[in-house]
Amino acid sequence: MQRSTNSTAWIDGSASNSRPFTVCFAVIAALTCIPVLAPKYLPLVDWPQHVATATILRDLMTGNAALGSLFAIDFQLTTYMTFYQGSALLGLVLPIELACRLFLLLAVTGPAMALVFLLRAFDRSPWPALFAFPASFSWVYFMGFASFTIALPLVLVGVALLQLTSVECTRRRLVALGAVAALLFITHSLAYLILGAFVAVLLPAYHGRDWRSMLRVALAFVPSLLLFAVWFATHFGEPDVATIGAAHATVSAPSAEGGMFGAQFEDLSTKLDRLQHDFNGGLSSNRDRTIARVFALLLPLYLAVSWVLARRHRHRGDRPTVHIWRPALAVAIAVLLYVAMPMAITGIWAISPRFVPLVAMLLPTLSACGVVHRSELRTALPGQGFLRNDLLNAALFSPVLALCAYNAWVQTDAGSRFSEEVGDFESVVEHIPPGSRVFGLIHDLGSQVVSEPAYIHFPAYVVPMRRAGPGFTFVHNSSVPLRLRNLAELPTLGRRGEWLPNRWRYDIMGPHYEYVLTRGRRSMRATGAPRGALVSVASADGWTLYANTQIRDERPVFSFDERIFEANVALRGDAGDERCGPYRDHRHQCPHAEWSWVGPTELQVHRTSTQRCTWVHPVADRVLTVAWSNVPGEVTRLHGFFGVAESAAVEPGPRPPIQFDLWVDGELAMSVSGDRAGAYDMIDVPIAATDSAREVRVEVSAEDVGRAHACFSLVGFAPR
User: Model's pTM, two decimal places?
Assistant: First the structure.
């Protein structure tokens, strides 16, 4: 096992405190905090959703009635706990968005602090840690992947502790390594797996054949592995559809377009073409490209200078005692992960781009400059060793300091200009009463300031600003400890629905929402809304709020789509009923054919409008029956649609119809004959309330079952 006085002394408190470095680092860190704290609105894509989620958690802790009627805490182990629960708890004493931003500071200053720790573990000078500041404002940061970006410093700390335990495997370091691994897991699961990749390679590389030392270090990961096992067992395999809903679970499932686990790979040339963009391509201006080019010039230049100087002064003891292969191996692991990882897997998007800032943060460890200790300073002759003079180090790093300061100014200016572009958003949403249900239709996603669709999640601000329920939230994501109290309350447009506002149809979605918030010019008549149904109540700077004047005094209480897993599905024929199911892999599979199934899907049933619905395909000489026996007796109206998908049209012209019958407690309530591919018929059936649960049954049949692609959506409403 390698031992080094230099590389271990600092961890025990005997390392020297370099005042020039401390001052420079503190100034740059303070400047880097300004882009996070100063702007009124942060230009990060997912940020409004994060603030909304933390707000819901905080308000449920304090008993807020408006949000408590819509949401409930789902007490389970999740992998975003550090950010969400931490922000919610801090929000008990601070404004909730300020609490969230204080955690976000870890994403922009944490990597540099962690890199100081890692550099000294490798017995390198801490000065190269300054390179982490511009690398922190990556494309991943601008996408608003907050939990992942605050997890990156923990990955670097974990790598540092792996190095230190290979030098001297003390109990203190093992406890620290185990705590970092556990904290990393509840911060972000992907970041935890990244640290696992480092452990798998570095542990045998550092310890060689010393199996006893390897076992001691490996045991430090037992607590985090137990957390991982519990989380994996409860979130993978068959989803808990009773909690998150069948339709929600289907939308969150991996896309069938990918390979195993929905993996979608890109070739290396595509990744390299996007390298600068992934490094810091969050801004629309050319200034981010300037930062990337200067960074790409200064880092290799500094590394080259450090090796030249180290070679000149190697006889004076300035070389690091930790051999270069150790930091080089850490860099190589990150590079290989970037090359090998897919773009998406198991519903997680933009995986490989997340390794670009990690590689950029690890590259400074290839420096050849050693650390300085008090004991060495006492015995050093005047002028001995160029690298021991921190004032000269400050001069050497002055271009890097200038780059960090310029980057901080660019990011602060971008945040300020973005806030001006947002305009008087607050004056529009202040007309929303607390507890209302609001659907956001963001037709103009883009910004002149940032390169990504920064406005796509802005409707989520109705949660912290007005305590209202948005039509799309991160609730029901497996990493978020929240659930809707009623799965019928806030229906969404399905997979990527927030990106496609043209899907929203007034006749289908209108009964659920009191208000519609829009950005960009588009007539509400295009949603199919009758004249006078949606009335503008406020408008400013491209934002418009519409009130739904024709919404009925009813509340959605039972979503047949979300509770399709509870239905009894069968094929009825002359020889009797043939049961389908049970519900597995997001469907009730019937024994007739692969396409004979019932379950959540998305089909194009209105020209270019894709709708979320329940797939029902008729079978020859049979009647497909789907029955729920647990519909609440308070339901007084059934609302939804039955549609024939455009994919059902093989060639133009009339086609044999698909028969759709709706039965309530054994009585026929509605009958529809769908014969137009790409069209749908509305379901709007009043029924009498009862004191007990009732049965609702759907029957579908057709004479010509070839490509009879059909679906329906149904919700039960009750009086308020």
Answer: 0.92
